[in-house]
């Protein structure tokens, strides 16, 4: 069984996650957003093995330096966004530096991931799905019961495609893939509450007098 703890981070409420194996306490951190103190707090007592990045917009990586200083473990990102970790114009912190708490310039990735890859960290394992549209190198990390879906899909909205690198047609295709991949799993998005898709709708509420 995997445990998931969410930490809501920074000025636009980015979700960072600590995911750990109930028995071994092997753990990964996902999306170290700005001012990641709460994420680090939740990671006390588990064995952090890696930092996984769904995509490298600044709101998902502004806390990376602080988190990597505390946990010097591999940093994983899709190859298409490798350069974004160290380039403030690519990660957009140059346009939002007041919000981002300054320019986001690294640290650099230490391992690049690709679609279909299987990742293992001690007793934890995740599949990588490359799901572009919100950004070109956007990925989701999937375990047996959980999906960490970044900014592709939220509880009541789909991801933005108006930021440079976004692509509405790719987003639609990725949403279709996610629907299949995530069936029966809990979805943990980059912002807002976790949810599940593929559940039948609840029965309609009957309104008005019954005859
Ligand atoms: Zn984003
Ligand atoms: Zn975001």
What this model shows, in words?
- The chain is 17% helix and 28% strand.
- The chain is α/β, with parallel strands linked by helices and 211 residues long.
- It has one domain: Ribonuclease Z/Hydroxyacylglutathione hydrolase-like (Metallo-beta-lactamase, Chain A).
- The strands form 2 sheets. A 6-stranded mixed β-sheet has the order 1-2-3-4-5-6. A 6-stranded mixed β-sheet has the order 7-8-9-10-11-12, with no helix packed on it.
- The termini are far apart.
- The mean pLDDT is 94.
- One zinc ion binds at residues 55, 57, 134-135, 151.
SSE order and pairing:
Blueprint: E1 2-9, E2 14-21, E3 26-30, H1 37-42, E4 47-52, H2 58-61, H3 64-70, E5 75-78, H4 97-100, E6 111-113, E7 118-121, E8 124-130, E9 139-142, E10 146-150, H5 168-181, E11 186-189, E12 195-196
Parallel strand pairs: 3-4, 4-5, 5-6, 10-11
Antiparallel strand pairs: 1-2, 2-3, 7-8, 8-9, 9-10, 11-12
The structure holds zinc ion (2 copies).
CA gyration radius, whole angstroms: 17 Å
Mean pLDDT: 94
- The overall strand count is 12
**What small molecules does the structure contain?**
zinc ion
Provide the helix percentage. 10-25%
Shape: globular
Low-pLDDT segments, ≥5 res? none
Structural class: alpha/beta
CATH-defined superfamily: Ribonuclease Z/Hydroxyacylglutathione hydrolase-like
Query: Any idea of the CATH topology?
Result: Metallo-beta-lactamase, Chain A
């Amino acid at each position: 069984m995997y445990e998931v703890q969410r930490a809501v981070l920074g000025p636009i409420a980015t979700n960072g996650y600590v995911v750990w194996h109930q028995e071994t306490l092997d753990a990964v951190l996902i999306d170290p957003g700005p001012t990641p103190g709460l994420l680090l707090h939740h990671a006390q007592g588990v064995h952090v093995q890696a930092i996984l990045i769904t995509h490298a917009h600044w709101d998902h990586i502004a806390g990376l330096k602080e988190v990597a200083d505390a946990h010097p473990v591999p940093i994983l990102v899709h190859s298409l966004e490798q350069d974004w970790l160290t380039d403030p114009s690519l990660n957009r912190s140059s346009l939002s530096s007041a919000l981002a708490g300054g320019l986001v310039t690294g640290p650099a990735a230490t391992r690049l991931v690709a679609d279909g890859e299987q990742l293992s960290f001690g007793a934890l394992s995740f599949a990588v799905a490359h799901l572009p549209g919100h950004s070109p190198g956007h990925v989701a990390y999937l375990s047996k019961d959980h999906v960490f879906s970044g900014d592709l899909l939220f509880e009541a909205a789909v991801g933005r495609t108006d930021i440079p690198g976004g692509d509405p047609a790719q987003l639609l295709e990725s949403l279709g893939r996610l629907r299949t991949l995530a069936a029966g799993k809990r979805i943990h998005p980059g912002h807002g509450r976790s949810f599940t898709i593929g559940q039948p709708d609840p029965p309609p509420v009957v309104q008005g007098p019954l005859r």
